[in-house]
Design goal:
- This protein has about 240 residues and is mainly β.
- It has 2 domains: about 130 residues, Protein HRI1, N-terminal domain (Lipocalin, Beta Barrel), CATH 2.40.128.320; about 90 residues, Protein HRI1, C-terminal domain (Lipocalin, Beta Barrel).
- It has 1 helix and 16 strands.
- It has an 8-stranded antiparallel barrel. Strands 4-14-13-12-11-10-16-15 form an 8-stranded mixed beta sheet.
- The longest helix has 6 residues.
- The protein is globular and about 50 Å long.
- The N and C termini lie close together (about 5 Å).
Length: about 240
């Protein structure tokens, strides 16, 4: 079963906790993930409905890759995320954190250390994640779909992950920080179905989201000269 993880706060010790982003991580049954973090406007705790198209400067971080987890002797888990795509670097190292399940059964406290972008120093951190169950989208099962695209000669790679009512995609098309595009989509039970919540990056670049979410099942999707291959497609 895939998972949804919304970040509730981040705390760089010893500072107070806060949440400057709208952060969602989608993880597939085979542990592929897409993690998109969008900077919120000052004083706001969510993205506004009129903020669908945003400049890349509003992207805090976007990642896609493969995760793994090991249960430790005291019962908590040590998780690792390998960044196949990373908006901040071409060859980013994996990161890891210690995951502690919370009493409510839907939240997880992550502890670890990494570079604080505000200071450039390696700093201990805490992140609280909320992991609600994925919803059905009109059928009787929860759908999980993953697509990947890679063109080594052109230096392009991308990953799309859908878990239930949420979908995200991130693409890197070059070596620079500006060579990244990301989108987030949500399905709502209001008669309108799927809609794009936010897009960051090159506004002209075509992505497979609309076709994958609205046009039914295929083994691959062609977007311009790119081939997006379906590597996971399950219903739970």
């Amino acid at each position: 079963m895939g998972s949804l993880s919304f970040r509730k706060f981040i705390r760089w010790l010893p500072d107070e906790a806060g949440e400057p982003t709208s952060t969602l991580v989608l993880t597939s049954p085979e542990k592929r993930f897409v993690d998109v973090r969008v900077l919120l406007p000052d004083g706001k705790d969510s993205l506004a409905d009129d903020e669908e198209i945003l400049p890349l400067s509003r992207l805090d971080w976007a990642m896609a890759g493969f995760s793994s987890s090991t249960v430790m002797s005291d019962g908590h888990s040590l998780s690792q995320w390998k960044h196949w795509i990373d908006s901040r670097a071409v060859d980013a190292p994996p990161d890891e954190g210690h995951m502690y399940a919370q009493p409510d059964g839907l939240s997880t406290l992550e502890k670890g250390h990494m570079t604080n972008p505000a200071t450039g120093k390696d700093t201990e951190y805490e992140e609280m994640w909320y992991d609600p169950p994925a919803k059905k989208t009109g059928g009787d099962k929860v759908v999980c779909v993953v697509l990947v695209m890679e063109d080594e000669k052109a230096g392009k790679k991308g990953m799309f992950v859908r878990v239930g009512e949420w979908a995200q995609v991130v693409v890197r098309d070059g070596d620079g920080e500006e060579d990244v595009v990301a989108e987030r989509w949500e399905w709502r039970d209001d008669g309108k179905g799927w809609r794009r919540i936010v897009r960051l990056g090159d506004g002209e670049r075509e992505l497979p989201c609309r076709e994958v979410l609205l046009d039914g099942k295929k083994s691959e999707y062609r977007v311009g000269d790119e081939v997006w291959k379906v590597v996971e497609d399950v219903e739970v």
